[in-house]
Design brief:
There is one protein chain. By secondary structure, the chain is an alpha+beta fold. The protein has one domain. It is built from 2 helices and 3 strands; from the N terminus they run H-E-E-E-H. The longest helix has 10 residues.
């Protein structure tokens, strides 16, 4: 988690995300899952938000192969992960429809 906004945008370029999109947040976690950085582009600059857990770890999805580390999340799912909720095995109810 030593990378700055320039370093993290370089990571996004490795995943063929050349242009940041103002509609998305880009979240990064360290191996120990106790720190998170989020990038947000507002068309004028990049915000970098960092969170360090004082105790325990987040239950982020396991890191896999390099090309499998991109995981689209609904805003609600990201909020739950940041709040420490374990999403393994969680399912959306049939009546729930996320707006695109």
């Amino acid at each position: 988690m030593r990378k700055s906004s320039d370093g993290l945008t370089g990571v996004l370029r490795e995943f063929s995300i050349a242009n940041l999109n103002a509609q998305f947040l880009y979240a990064f976690s360290n191996k120990r899952r106790n720190r998170v950085k989020i990038l947000y582009f507002d068309r004028t600059g990049i915000y970098v938000v960092a969170k360090k857990l004082e105790e325990g770890t987040s239950n982020w999805p396991p890191s896999g192969k390099k090309n499998e580390q991109i995981l689209p999340l609904a805003p609600e799912a990201l909020q739950l992960l940041l709040d420490g909720v374990d999403l393994r095995g969680a399912q959306l109810r049939e009546w729930y429809r996320a707006e695109n």
